[in-house]
Design goal:
heterodimer, A: 1 helix, B: alpha+beta, 4-stranded antiparallel sheet
Amino acid sequence: TAFANRHGKRHGKKSRLRCSKKPLHVNFKELGWDDWIIAPLEYEAYHCEGVCDFPLRSHLEPTNHAIIQTLMNSMDPSSTPPSCCVPTKLTPISILYIDAGNNVVYKQYEDMVVESCGCR
Amino acid sequence: FQLASIGSSTKGPRSRREAKVARSPRGIPALASHQPRLPQEAQPGGKAQQRAEPHEYMLSLYRTYSIAEKLGINASFFQSSKSANTITSFVDRGRDDLSPAPLRRQKYLFDVSTLSDKEELVGAELRLFRKAPGHRLSQPPPGLSSMQLFPCLSPRLLDARTLDPREAPPAGWEVFDVWQGLQQQQPWKQLCLELRAPGGRGQQPLPDLRSLGFGRRGRAQQEKALLVVFTRSPRKNLFAELREERGSPREERGSPQRVPQETQQQFKTRRKRR
């Protein structure tokens, strides 16, 4: 049994990073894509990182399957891995680029930015 | 038209996502490719196609919709976007008739072969820059002039505008709806549109398109006619799109396929082990 301190954190056990959204700065120039992308040349995409361990918090919006898998993992870690920390909501960004015909194109690309992370 | 600009103070709740587009002193984002670059890069033959210069209209679209995204507004709801998620611009490839005779008809040519038939065409417009005459015409054509737009060699009217040549107009863009013209052109290769000046009301002489500000001579790249096509594309994987659009040797730059041989070998070994 771990005792919670006044901040709600557990003593005596190194707390592991819970599943959450972390920064991921994308620089198209560094990717070598600036020869076709006009704008933006960089943007914040974010990524999901951390563990989905028992008990799962509601803000992680776990699926029923993730709840079961997490429970199974907590009872017997060798039976199944914990559920995965993945993007649960993604949003688009606008990109202005040059296509194969050397025409300038505006396009809204779906699923380019992580809005929230969860356990699945 | 007014430019939308991304001000540094527009930090909405989603501003963390904003792109750091370098700014020019005039406050207009100095987009990296504003100047044609990469003259011979990755083109061993040496004959490089000059990189397209983004038209101010396209930059303006990008800025406006990017701001909307930051504010959490779906840009495809904008009336101007015609619910499209892709807007492609084609620059006029036509040339002026050099004869000194009055210009009664002007052709505009666009290579639209890159449009895919898998995309749903939701709108198309021809944007023609009408130059303000440097001096007032000594003998302007009397009455109103009707500008009519047709597909080349076709009597089917696509759109029309009425201009008063006696009024010195401010320079500006005339926008013609050419959706129907493009819709009936599939499969898309070349689109040829013709601006005709059929004359004013009554029996007045036919106006010269040059005197109305539609001549091509001395036009900057930004003033060339622009065909803007609005499409709704099915959701696609970014890499699938890259493969389609970057069918050149440059395709491999930065793509996931570009993996050192050593690493490829590691992948193979790992796959075998699995």
